[in-house]
Amino acid sequence: MIHVLLAAALTVACSNPAPAPGLPSGTITIGMLTSLTGIDHSLAIDASLGAQQAVDEANAGGGLSGHRVQLSVEDDSGNAALVPAALSRLAVRRPAGIIGPLFASGELALAPATRLPVVSLSGFDTVVMSGRGMRSNVFLGVPSASRSAERMLVYAQASKRSGLAVAHPAGDPFSDQALATLKADASRFGTAVVDDEQFDPATTDFGPLLNRVRASSAKLLVAWGGGSAAPLLTRAWKDSGLEAPLLLSGARSSTDFLKSTGELGQGALMEVTASVLAGSPPVPPAVQKQVAGMASAFQRAQHYYPSQAAFDGYAGARLLLAAIAKAGSADPAAIDAALEKLSLPTAAGTFSFSARDHLGLPASWLQVATIKDGRLSPTA
Question: Any idea what DSSP says for residue 135?
Answer without folding.
Answer: -
